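Take our chain:
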Amino acid sequence: MSLYRLKGTAGSVINQSFALGEPFVLGSSADCEVQIAEPGVAARHAEITWVDDKSLLLKDLGSRTGTLLNGEPVLESRLRSGDEIHIGSCRWILQAPGLRPNRVLTADAVKTPGRIWPRVFVWTVLGAAVAAVVVFAWQPEWLDILKSMLE
């Protein structure tokens, strides 16, 4: 049996990795392999099982809020590397052994973006300067009015 992993990409499981064993249950109960302590998550919400020791099967275990696979509600479906599982606010990407799907969050994808205000300020000042040059180039009499107001 290959060692597949679930890589957390959102919610309380972000940046956590879970090796898939048999059985593998996701839910709010303490006996689940992945415990999700959120309103709307059933005690035993979903399960991932092996089929013929070759592929994985995702089953929703009758939860009220449902389980999403690649953005679509699912009751039961086979899984492939790179599939996204979504329960509550938590999301995971399925990783096959030795592979890292493009959608998996890397350190660069997770890093906090830089502050935006310095960039906004610089672009605002540049925009105002360009606007002033354009106005004074097309309406030179405004420059004379401005000079007379300053005197």
